[in-house]
Amino acid sequence: MAEYPFKYGNTQYNFKIERGELLHLLKPRPAVPIADVHQKCIEALENPIGTLPLRQIISPGENVLLIVSDITRAWIRTNQFLVHIINYLNGLSIPDQDISVLIALGTHRPSTEEEKKQIVGEEIYNRIAIYDHDCFDPGQLENLGTSSAGTPIQIHKRVVAADRVILTGGIVFHLFAGFGGGAKGIVPGVAGLETIQHNHRLTFYEGESAGLNPDACSNKIEGNPMRQDITEICRRVNPDFLFNAVLDAEGNFIEFVAGDFEAAWLKGCNTIRQLYGIEVKEKADLIIASAGGYPKDINLYQSVKTMDNCIFGGKEDSVILLLAECRDGLGADEFLEWFQYDTLEKMEAALKRNFTVPGYAAYKAAYVAKYRKLVLLSSLEDEVVGRLGFIPARSMEEAISLAYSLAGEQPKITLMPYGANTLPILA
Fold this sequence. Notes:
By secondary structure, the chain is an alpha/beta fold. It folds into 2 domains: 3-28 and 278-426, 2-enoyl-CoA Hydratase, Chain A, domain 1, CATH 3.90.226; 37-247, Rossmann fold (3-Layer(aba) Sandwich), CATH 3.40.50.11440. It has helices at 37-46, 78-91, 113-120, 122-127, 157-161, 193-200, 225-237, 263-276, 300-313, 344-353, 357-371, 382-387, 396-407; strands at residues 3-8, 11-16, 21-25, 64-69, 99-104, 129-132, 141-146, 152-156, 164-170, 173-174, 178-179, 241-247, 253-259, 277-280, 284-290, 314-323, 373-377, 391-393, 412-416, 423-426. A 6-stranded parallel β-sheet has the order 3-19-15-16-17-18, with helices on both faces. Strands 6-5-4-9-12-13 form a 6-stranded mixed β-sheet, sandwiched between helices. Strands 1-2 form a two-stranded antiparallel ribbon. It is globular.
């Protein structure tokens, strides 16, 4: 009988299927990691998609602003490629004093100095001016009108004032924007709170208790109202260049895409689909999933993405057994507060009044609890897990026993050992 390894924090559990039918074992497709990061960075910069090479865009004497992801996206390993972009700019006669970096915090907390150093790397930290975006400070924002969806466009003044803007980031499936990376560096990255909240409300239908808009989901770009609004706003801002990374499940660089913020990003999205979009022939009665170990299961907030991916692979009212250590607890101070609302409708109404990303993650968790039976093996206290609507387990043996008791005698089973990355796509 085969054993299947599942990561949990920094450890691992091995699982055997003792009864039932194995439908699918979902793993990322193999890819060859980039051997020479510097060389591939230069190749991407000099062979862009949908726009001219940087050397034909930027002129000496212009000031250049690079937008980078914050510490919550440390998996992108910005510090491994940013130095090559900045050195390349130096080679175009753009000195360090004409280059600055803006950390795209969205609604996240400010960066510490140590985190800034970690994000950009020690060398760049000591060479280049590094700034945090603050969506709550009106003095940092410039008004650029309104999008066709009615979103007020408030963008960090440094972005508007810069002669040239380069977006950086990483591409993954995103549970409501379709994919991460690309224009998300602008919205929510360097946008004002009002912009972010209005844009994120597009994940719901308009009207009281209207529910989630199913088009605002992972792997969907065309027809996704939130993503279309982000793209329109980014086109209004008109950044000059994009550099995005695609990584494998182990954190190795697979591809760099560069050029027009949308055209280059779309190429990276297709790579993500090829790596992580796994076709399934039918939906399961029981999904056994791991977020992928630390840091993907560092807290429950980060583990919601795995729950969302599991929804696509299971039948309605099916069972999910999720391994997520959650060593840092829930991951957002406000997360549990959203469960004061005892129905999805009440939570939706509160989100429409005051949208926050942790609130949306809480909504998604509550949504999973309503439409699936989720057994959670974690370090969270049983009382907290129960309040979220999940079934707590203290050991793998207990978790398996609970899952089987809920799924029936001969369940059809899908295994997702890389649940944060892999997305089941029904054939």
